[in-house]
Amino acid sequence: MKIMVTGGAGFIGSAVVRHIIKETNDSVVNLDKLTYAGNLESLAEISTSDRYCFEQADICNRAKVDSILREHQPDAVMHLAAESHVDRSIDGPAVFIETNIVGTYTLLEACREYWGALDSNRKQSFRFHHVSTDEVYGDLADSGAFFTEETPYSPSSPYSASKASSDHLVRAWHRTYGLPVIVTNCSNNYGPYHFPEKLIPLMILNALEGKPLPVYGNGDQIRDWLYVEDHARALYRVITTGVVGETYNIGGHNEKRNIEVVDTICKLLEELAPNKPAAVQHYRDLITFVTDRPGHDARYAIDASKIKRELGWAPQETFESGIRKTVCWYLQNLEWCRRVQDGSYQRERLGILPAEEVTR
């Protein structure tokens, strides 16, 4: 099978691409615009595979998407391209509307035309897999409930509202036009190659530099944490065995308060990176509580029983095993982190680094 992955240079997308190339016999066409969060260095280990191809393109560019579909003739599309940072969506929602809503619409229309022209066998087997988030469901607060596939949508941020909109578009294209779609909604991902603006990598890297560890409010917000490589396995299971028209929630069964997550990182760093920056006695001393984010949801929690029951998927990592692997990965890949933090991963791609810095 040949799978086109949109956003394949992003955090989750790159994990999916690596999984497919390393663990299956399928081929991948990686379509990515390479915004700030797209990093081809995250795909270095599989970039020379003859089953991998990269196409730099914006999903909002219909002509380019049409051209790529015609050239590569994929058997399935996994749509992961999205703006995904809540804080950025609050500061500047326009790009989230453009990419997550208009981009998804453009991609749906391109795929509908492409799918409609396939022969009967390929048309029957084609799949459009839309990858979304549990944030579309809103805030569970202190209800004790879990998000199921039937939970009504109630998004709180511009980011989650734009993803909810894209989910509705995908389902409408299935109902109205018959496009064979599958939707998945996942909980908070973490793991290797995570962009340093997100909570877990930010805490790790700030602590190593002796910088404050900013925690919103009192840190009591609860999230269900999913190791990214478990998520990649789940997504591949869905695209290969999922039922058209169905939605599958993907969670890690790991509810943790944000302050617990930060505490765990600090404890692991005490063990794994005992040589602290000057003036830092304990990593936990760097925790700083800051003004809470506007509209901050109190609790997310996924009921992932459907995907386990119907497709046989369950996470392999506990939070304890996954967070240890994550901290170890960052400690062993500080050069990757430096290049992201100082922007050189982008400047080199654009050809504006001096030669001595390119080879450093």
Tell me what the structure shows.
The chain is α/β, with parallel strands linked by helices and 360 residues long. The protein has a domain at 2-194 and 224-256 and 297-319: NAD(P)-binding Rossmann-like Domain (Rossmann fold, 3-Layer(aba) Sandwich), CATH 3.40.50. It is 44% helix and 16% strand. It contains 14 helices and 12 strands. It has helices at residues 11-23, 62-72, 86-91, 94-116, 120-125, 158-177, 199-208, 228-241, 258-272, 305-311, 319-332, 334-341, 344-349, 355-358; strands at 2-6, 27-32, 52-56, 76-79, 127-133, 181-186, 188-190, 213-216, 222-227, 247-250, 255-257, 287-290. A 7-stranded parallel β-sheet has the order 3-2-1-4-5-6-10, with helices on both faces. A 3-stranded mixed β-sheet has the order 7-9-11. The chain has a two-stranded parallel ribbon with strand order 8-12. Helix 1 links the parallel strand 1 and strand 2.
List keywords for this structure.
14 helices; seven-stranded parallel beta sheet; globular; disordered C terminus; alpha/beta; 360 residues; 16% strand; single chain
Molecular shape: globular
Question: Mean of residue pLDDT?
Answer: 94
Largest sheet: 7 strands, parallel
Provide the CATH topology of the domain at 2-194 and 224-256 and 297-319: Rossmann fold
Major β-sheet strand ordering: 3-2-1-4-5-6-10
Measured on Cα atoms, how large is the radius of gyration? 20 Å
Distance between the termini: 39 Å
The string of secondary-structure elements, in order, is EHEEHEHHHEHEEHEEHEEHEHHHHH
Question: What ranges have pLDDT less than 50 throughout 5 or more consecutive residues?
Answer: 352-360
| Beta-strand residue percentage | 15-25%
- Structure summary, number of beta strands: 12
Structural class: alpha/beta
The top level CATH class name of the domain at 2-194 and 224-256 and 297-319: Alpha Beta
Helical content class: 40-55%
- Provide the CATH architecture of the domain at 2-194 and 224-256 and 297-319: 3-Layer(aba) Sandwich
Q: State the helix count.
A: 14
